[in-house]
Amino acid sequence: MIDLPTGNMIAQAAHLMGDPARANMLAALIGGEALTAGELASHAGITPQTASGHLAKLLDGRLVTAERQGRHRYFRLASPSVAQALEGLMALSQMPLAAPVKRHGPRDEAMRWARTCYDHMAGRLAVEITATLEQRGLLHRSEGVGVLSDEGHRFFCDFGIDLATTHRPKRPVCRMCLDWSERRPHMAGRLGTALLTRTIELGWVMRTPNSRTLKITPAGHRGFADMIGRALTPS
What PROSITE patterns does the annotation carry (predicted)? Predict the structure, then answer.
């Protein structure tokens, strides 16, 4: 038998997901991307003002989280459990997955694939590296900061990165930076900088003159495939 507090929590979550506008907004986030309130309003077919009210309720219900980067505030699903619940509801209702939202970031495919973001690597490749490290338990996120496990430290030492000897020790070891085009996090901080520097040293990556685009060499394609566990090519 479900106790009363548990039943109330289920009812509250179901109520939040059950509103058509909120359901469309949540469905737009199911792919893991982070979207602005304006983008979510467009996807749900409502005004930005109405979207703000719905987002406030979703935040209070802990179904979404928000983070500010620059001038914009981005929203994403609060956890994989929320995505699983949405997929379950879609299956029950035979509701198709949400149509893909408009692509973001640079139009240049090479820049979408790999580029510099200040002093670290960004783009799909950087996001996939970060996701792989998380999946293997080498890195985990805590309040916007990436924390390496002991195995993670050994992994990067073997790769030629000793974070104890990197410059600017007061700078965070790893800060999670929301990727402009992928809308998922990549690594910044001392670790992000060291990774870019090391891959350039290895000849895996080459800077492009007068551009943020990074060129991945044949050696880099092989090396990153070994690091990630699968081959990746620009889409």
Answer: HTH_ARSR_2
Structure tokens at 206: 């080459």
146 DSSP 8-state letter: E
Beta bridge partners, 213, equal 115
Mean pLDDT score of the chain: 87
Domain ranges across the chain: 4-93, 109-228
**Both structure tokens of 125:** 């490749």
Kindly tell me the sign of the dihedral angle through the C-alpha atoms of 226, 227, 230, 231: negative
> pTM for the complete prediction?
0.65
Q: How many CA atoms lie within 13 A of 192 on its CB side?
A: 29
4-93: CATH, from 2.60.40.1120, 3.50.50.60, 1.10.10.10, 3.40.50.11810: 1.10.10.10
